[in-house]
Design brief:
The chain is of the alpha/beta class. It is 33% helix and 24% strand. The structure holds flavin-adenine dinucleotide.
Amino acid sequence: MEVVNDSNCSWINDLNKRSNIQIISSDLDCEWLIVGAGYTGLSAARKLGQLYPNKKIILVDAQLAGEGASSRNSGYLVDTTLNDGFTSNKELENYKKKADIYKLGIEAVKKFIKEHQVDCDWNECGKYFASSKEKDKKILENFSETLSKLGFKHDILFNKDLKKKLGTNFYNIALYTKGGILLNPGKLVRAMIDTLSENVSLYENSFLLNWRKLNGIINCDFKNGSIKTKKIIFATNGFLKSLGIKKNYNFPITLTASMTRPLTDEEFKSIGEPKEWGVLPIRPMGATIRMTKDKRILIRNTAEVHNPYKMSKIDLDKRAIKQKIGIKKRFPQLPDDIIQSAWSGIVSRTRNSSQIFEKLDDNIFVAGCYNGSGIGVGTLFGEQIAIKASNENTKEIEIIESRNKPTWLPPQPFLDLGIKARLFYERIRARSEI
Ligand SMILES: Cc1cc2nc3c(=O)[nH]c(=O)nc-3n(C[C@H](O)[C@H](O)[C@H](O)COP(=O)(O)OP(=O)(O)OC[C@H]3O[C@@H](n4cnc5c(N)ncnc54)[C@H](O)[C@@H]3O)c2cc1C
């Protein structure tokens, strides 16, 4: 088994190629093993490297480090997400807990980029929750009430203002939140790889086939070797379930996105030369769409149950057509052939949108499952699970652990049927917004 990703993601292809890739090809041992080198695993490895400068720490990934969802996302570092149900006091309390975690996530990323002087096109430009449907005003009013109670600065905007800010006539209503950052996810995760400390050994293209604990030692098998470790942290996110971890509590969802080439000056003028912006949909299956710093348009408008290990080129091309239509709907004046790349990526979801942060057994830990908001939360959870695994406590761990735990999922085939039915329903509800 291996993870076979397309090699089309612009965020990745724009970076310098890495060299000196190590693959597991013998039997190794270590004090700490971290499986999965996205934001979560890299942050756990960074923290352990600082805490234990004299211990042997190994970080492994099935593909090249950071080239899973961590480089393939849309680059929104969020402070808030939209949930129309949060009206009662209890729900408000839950929303606050979620927002507190987002805040800590932003602080964790901010601290990392400050400490290492990382250029990742950081832009504190806020974000829009937008819809073409004026009747979505009710959802935004409820959301606005929640945000006001919690002190988040925001505004509701209508078509004329939105046209000026976004360069498209498509949206009729939006809620703008001042918090929230847009960034280049590929640059951020590459900096996390480049700044790993010397006592962390990174092995890539090394797929963990299976693992077991025997007499207090955890034995991990790879195609051409093995690792024996005293402690292990699983940070494989959308692939937790396939390793048998919390398998009744999380499931993978495949997303696809496309990005255009940079617009020419003339094309950019034709849409009113807007500043960088990011739109999130009001209806869950609507499009996420952003204008990047270098005048490219990124769109993500699919989410589905799919084989997480691979998407064929034919399947990906079909999704890219949906993305081309999504861009055309919003920017009819732009040419048809401006999409430069299309890619897929895997996220992990739980039933109640709670994340996973746990000790599974003595010396076995897991962090993941961010339901599409993993840039900040993954960075935070990676650092904090390393601290928890060191038997320490922090105020961050207390906040993380005060959230509801993920709820139990029904077994197959009922799970897939349920998810597919829900996604189908949400797709119908959002059909104008795709
Ligand atoms: C299209 C898209 C858009 C998104 N947009 C946003 C956004 O705008 N903002 C946001 O905050 N989040 C977004 N997300 C979600 C975000 O990317 C993830 O939540 C985040 O990357 C999770 O980080 P992670 O380190 O936990 O997992 P990942 O980045 O998924 O890393 C897990 C790693 O584990 C490795 N692995 C899996 N199985 C094995 C195995 N058996 N052996 C060894 N290694 C293994 C994988 O190769 C992978 O590299 C988006 C995701 C996608 C796909």
